[in-house]
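Per reviewer request, we include the raw input and output of the structure prediction for the construct analysed in the revised manuscript.
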Amino acid sequence: MPKAPAICAATLLAAASTPAFAETSMPEMNGTWESIACELRPQAGQDGIAPWYLKRSVIFGEGRIDAHFTTFADANCTTPLLELKFGGDVIVQGPSTVADRAMEVDLIVNDYLTVTPQMDGFAGFLNSAEPGTCGTEDWTVGTEQDVFATGCSVMGVAANTPTSEYEVLHVSAGHLYFGARPVDGVSLDDPELRPTALQMPLKLMEGGITQRVGEDDLRVPTHVEIVLFEQADGADPEEVRAFFEAITEKMNQNDTLLYRTVGQGDDGTWLCVNYWTNRPDMETLNQQAQSWSAEFATMGALVKPESFRLTSYATGL
């Protein structure tokens, strides 16, 4: 296995935390966020810049972060290398000029930092540390250890030392953006290194609140479409959600559907609200969608077709 580059805990954050604004809270930040695809991270090591691949899952609360990163040995994120979990606090410094409503945020890992090797080679790499300088037990694949107290010398993590990263955070239409990572792989451990651009976002999986469409998008919705329907008997609600995610992804390729939210009420009825740039494009895309046989193949088993009730409105914007 190639020698792993040194990694500091702050660099491994690469993007994850929850700001609570200095004056008011940000309920739209609270929830569970996950990577939308395999992500590339440059890492600086003794042998130069090396690529790292990862997926992120982050849970945000008021002034709190709990994150789970999985790094992979391949660009398709199919061969896990190690898992990292960390928790800590957030200090919001104020507005950023990177994007409308973006904030400058200091991320502090001061609670826990666990490592779980998922490959023999990486377990051996961790075991190369001097005894007591990277966990308290021998490392084996699938075994998790908290290294916050001991540090991890071979990963550049100091013992009992909170690490800070100077970040930028931005929420837009169900996605959470962090600052773009430096191409030279250095850590954002200095306020002067705070990002000036955004990276690939995380997607809201649970929690949060729907942002007003158009708030940070120059386009505004001139037409809103509301659909009510019932799921088929015995259908799994999660499969219904997955079905609409697939349809939404297909429609988003057209760039005329600004936002869609889908939810199930206490009585079991589903509500789908679609925000469109304009009515003609909405009608055109809905007509085109009737030919998407592959995408709609599972609809009959998930939704009662006769239950659909559709209305639409001009917003006047």
